[in-house]
Amino acid sequence: MSDLLQTVRGLAKKTDSKILMVVLDGVGGLPMTVNGETELATAKTPNLDALARESQLGQVELIGAGITPGSGPGHLSLFGYDPLHYLVGRGALSAVGIGVKLNKGDVAVRGNFATLGADRIVEDRRAGRPSDEKNAEVVARLKTAIPEIDGVPVEIYTESEHRFVVVFRAGNGGDLGANLSDVDPQTTGVQPMTATAHDAPSEKTAALVNAFVQRAEEALGDDPQVNGVLFRGYSDVPHFPSFEDAYQLNAACIASYPMYKGLASLVGMEVLDVEGEEDALDGKVQALTRHWAEYDFFFLHIKKTDSTGEDGDFAAKVKKIELFDALLPRLLALQPDVFCVVGDHSTPSKLSAHSWHPVPVLIHSEYGRKDAAVRYTEEEAARGSLGLRRGTDLMPLLMANALKLNKYGA
Amino acid sequence: MSDLLQTVRGLAKKTDSKILMVVLDGVGGLPMTVNGETELATAKTPNLDALARESQLGQVELIGAGITPGSGPGHLSLFGYDPLHYLVGRGALSAVGIGVKLNKGDVAVRGNFATLGADRIVEDRRAGRPSDEKNAEVVARLKTAIPEIDGVPVEIYTESEHRFVVVFRAGNGGDLGANLSDVDPQTTGVQPMTATAHDAPSEKTAALVNAFVQRAEEALGDDPQVNGVLFRGYSDVPHFPSFEDAYQLNAACIASYPMYKGLASLVGMEVLDVEGEEDALDGKVQALTRHWAEYDFFFLHIKKTDSTGEDGDFAAKVKKIELFDALLPRLLALQPDVFCVVGDHSTPSKLSAHSWHPVPVLIHSEYGRKDAAVRYTEEEAARGSLGLRRGTDLMPLLMANALKLNKYGA
């Protein structure tokens, strides 16, 4: 651990003040035409506008200039963990993404289904991109065929198309290492590779992986298309300082999607139950209100601003922003000492994808200077007094505004 | 040494141009009410306003986002030394704070007076917080009782209440190490700890510390309250490249308080005598004028902008800013090639304390671009063309504007 987080960790103190961080997933946008308005600028947001007039605005770049963040690194940055420093392996991120909790000593592995021809030669590294239904069928067959190997419990999870995840549980057989070579040859026309351990604790993992490959091929041998597995990316559980350890914060997560719950639990947040439909805003506010007294930091995640952007549906994204705006008074009524609205990355409808553009951030606290902003938009944020910052600056700023940081040095 | 300082050091060259850096201690502020005006914005500053119209403005963050700087780290940052990298120990900082110069091989130690009960059990780690007068009396007794130990000169200095500083002088007995364990048990109900060396050069220091503790207890045994000493934080002299070495600058300090003189001498500045009352602005201008021909860099420190902020006295802070404004023409009459106004941290009257808020910075030189600023205020600075920067960016900018840096690369 280096950097600002380490410094903040040494200064953090427990107080009664409360911080509420709302992440509007993918909220930053783009105009559809040159000099047009973004989704945020187009949306009618009277409540956000009023709040902006009493807040400080700025822009955050979650990873670095020009870098488009995935949801994992984007959130890690918002939580104050430099995603270039605090690495989450591909296997662990996949596990987190489907809501599977990794424990110490477990190893998660990213798998691809493949098509093998005569003599185990890889013909297609993605098995012709099977449907999600076919994927689930194959996973079910493998679950029956490989419930355990040598007494080590084996869990197999469907992802989508050709992708699946395997978790080898440490159980009472001792911790498993994650330092071994890939099975995926990254090319066709050759056989799958044999996994080789790079250190002693990974020898058992290599044996498990190679046994899994063999038994999977036996189990799937009658399928002409999906009849092999390739592994790439092994991870054990990431070793992060928790929110409690880093910030002295008793933190709670209010989210609907497994990925965000998983990321929050990775940093030690308590994941609260949310009732109602998958992205029910009302259920989230109810959960927040119900647990308000119990925690001093809340991460409230709202997904649909991203999904609509990913769909390239400008009007729908505008609508989702307006739905959040309508909700805002109920959040402010709880009177958080520090209230923040931000995104984990931009998702412009124009791109139908995540993008590298900085995300507007708004911080409301009693200890802010006057800022000329009158709305929460990309354009106002670019002129905001908080300036253009790394995403990892956000948590220290929220902590400072909550008067939860001691002075550095005399 | 890493970072920008190392690069600048390789490019610095000696020229005739002169740089004047004025540090208005704790100058950054906050409005007392939402969207109100800060101390700087409230002050009537016709001279600063006129200067701002011909200068470049920006904001500096001395340590990092959300981090409230102490005076030591704040000034180190202004001087171009990253305070997270160039560490000054607690003992050295205390020595510096009371104006005691450490030499190579010396060790400075922070001490607390304590109340010991039967069997040397620590009853109060701060000896009931004695008055400063009582502190001075006890220090006088210790000075008589412990002028030296084993031929090593011992200096004892009063700080305030329960705090004092001991300096063990290397003398001709060889250099002393500063890597040893504390005497302070950090709790009551136990005996003081015995200092233990963590490396060979610190073995002699540990013996000196333990002997000091024993002799102090003997000397103070008849006092029921202040009858023991606890040590915590040992430091040798920090190893910084000097201003001459880093910047090829022949630098002078004009300050009234020991802390700032000490910090300046730590980086090799010549500390000039200032006549008149403790924070006499007139005496400072006289010293500056008298020595103007002799140096090519001047650090002029003004304290009262901080003290009034610490007192929570908004009106008084405004007044101190106006006093500086009245002085400004006399400084500008010296025609420095580069003139800079900045603070070492913010001290909002609203908080009655140092704060994390960025500090407005103004740079005036012949080589600045047009900037829209019309006043030196936090709000104008937030829109300034220099942007939001780390404090360690300032010295390279001043050096560049003084045409004292060679090109990097061909």
UniProtKB/TrEMBL annotation, chains A, B:
EC number: 5.4.2.12
InterPro entries with a match to the protein in the record: Alkaline_phosphatase_core_sf, ApgAM_prokaryotes, Metalloenzyme, Pglycerate_mutase_ApgM, Pglycerate_mutase_ApgM_sf
Pathway participation: Carbohydrate degradation; glycolysis; pyruvate from D-glyceraldehyde 3-phosphate: step 3/5
Residue span(s) of domain Metalloenzyme: 18-400
Pfam families per the UniProt record, alphabetical: Metalloenzyme, PhosphMutase
EC supergroup of this enzyme: isomerase
Alphabetically ordered keywords of this record: Glycolysis, Isomerase
Catalytic activity: (2R)-2-phosphoglycerate = (2R)-3-phosphoglycerate
Function field: Catalyzes the interconversion of 2-phosphoglycerate and 3-phosphoglycerate.
NCBIfam families cross-referenced by the UniProt entry: apgM, PRK04135.1
HAMAP family: ApgM_B
Protein family per UniProt: Belongs to the BPG-independent phosphoglycerate mutase family. A-PGAM subfamily.
Name this polypeptide is given: Probable 2,3-bisphosphoglycerate-independent phosphoglycerate mutase
Annotated source species: Deinococcus aerophilus
